[in-house]
Specification:
The protein is α/β, with parallel strands linked by helices. The chain is 49% helix and 14% strand. An 8-stranded mixed β-sheet has the order 3-2-1-4-7-6-8-5, sandwiched between helices. Strand 1, helix 1 and strand 2 form a beta-alpha-beta unit. The longest helix has 19 residues. The chain is globular, with a radius of gyration of 24 Å.
Length: 371
């Protein structure tokens, strides 16, 4: 039957990341296929030392083409699609084999953490080695349309796995990636002008390069695409959110954008947070507290939704925002209580402890001077 699981990677100058990635898959996959697109550092040496099957591929400014070449070299029954700046958390091989063992499954989601400090979302990273499943798109390449066509035919389904991947590639300075991605994004937008995610990423790239007017223009284009669309997506709010951030989360214009996005995506937690922050800026502390309270009840450690969120809008951090609002209102006893809730959830956070103590001192002082 051949090997069960093949990991497939494309790499270039990844000596700082690759070793940890490959080590994280020991005992989990049966082979590792590494396709090098022109490394000049120790990437190839690291891959060989870890026992990977190493192949060369001439880069053509097309991520899908390189990934599909990697798929062609794999021999496993299943593919784990992973990048050098990602790591598999320790996981039981037998559990994984069981999760992908059903004959009627063509793909499986995993728990994916897109960056440090963010919550997880289900990502399609496991799929059968099937010639019908191929990547599409020069950048932000995806095999999901292929998988969805197979599922739509009624012959297969998508399962889920508890395998967890961490992406650390967004930690640190991103300018080199921004410069690399800019021409690819502009090229892909010629092919997919209505893909919201591309407009969002293009705006982020311009922002990271200090080209703020072009960033705003890209996000505005994305907002226009959403407004014209007849089918809703979990990506609809992305460009609205960045435009609102660019308005510094204050003023009627930012609030209008947040409210419009919330109508399109009413369960988006970041929009709840942004609305609350706008209310804080306007001095509407009581109304802001009710918005933060909904977020405070959510545990970021266990949250897995279609959208990934910064952990600092949930749980302890939302309680701390409630404490700040109460403090500004002079409700020091409530402020102390909410900072205590935050401190209990994050006991190592000195900020929460100090602010809780300050609120307690203010409450005690107010009581001493009360008649």
């Amino acid at each position: 039957m051949g090997k069960l699981i093949s990991a497939a990677l494309i790499v270039k100058d990844e000596e700082n990341y690759l070793d940890d990635c490959l080590r994280s898959m020991r005992g989990l996959v049966d082979e590792i296929v590494v396709v090098d697109t022109g490394s000049t550092d120790r990437t190839r040496e690291i891959a060989a030392a870890e026992g990977a099957r190493l192949f060369d591929y001439q880069w053509h400014e097309d991520f899908s083409a390189a990934r599909n070449y990697a798929l062609n070299q794999a021999t496993g029954d299943w593919i784990l699609y992973i990048d050098a700046d990602e790591r598999c958390r320790p996981y039981d091989r037998m559990s994984l084999a069981t999760e992908i063992g059903a004959a009627d499954m063509c793909a499986c989601t995993v728990r994916f953490y897109p960056r440090s400090g963010f919550t997880a979302y289900p990502e399609h990273r496991l799929f059968r080695r099937d010639p019908r499943i191929r990547f599409e798109g020069a950048i932000h390449e995806t095999m999901l349309p292929s998988i969805q066509r197979i599922v739509a035919s009624g012959a297969s389904r998508i399962g889920s796995s508890n395998l967890t991947l961490d992406h650390i590639g967004y930690d640190g300075n991103q300018r080199h990636k921004a410069e690399r991605n800019l021409p690819l994004l502009l090229k892909q937008l010629q092919v997919e002008p209505d893909r919201i995610y591309l407009w969002w990423h293009l705006g982020n790239v311009y922002r990271d390069l200090g080209r703020l007017e072009e960033a705003s223009a890209a996000w505005t284009q994305g907002v226009d695409v959403v407004r014209r669309a007849t089918i809703r997506s979990h990506e609809d709010a992305l460009c609205f959110i960045e435009l609102a951030k660019s308005y510094q989360l204050k003023g009627d214009e930012a609030l209008k954008l947040v409210r419009e996005a919330a109508r399109l995506q009413p369960n988006n937690l970041l929009l709840d947070w942004m609305k609350a922050r706008i209310l804080v800026a306007a001095g509407c502390y009581g109304e802001a507290i009710s918005n933060f309270a909904r977020l405070a009840r959510i545990d970021p450690n266990n949250l897995v939704t279609a959208v990934s969120y910064d952990r600092r809008i949930l749980g302890a951090w939302a309680f701390a925002e409630m404490g700040s609002c109460a403090f500004k209102m002079g409700n020091y006893r409530e402020s102390e209580k909410w900072y205590r809730d935050a401190e209990q959830m994050e006991p190592d956070c000195l900020e929460f402890r100090v602010k809780r103590q300050l609120a307690a001192m203010r409450f005690a002082a107010a009581n001493r001077h009360s008649p």
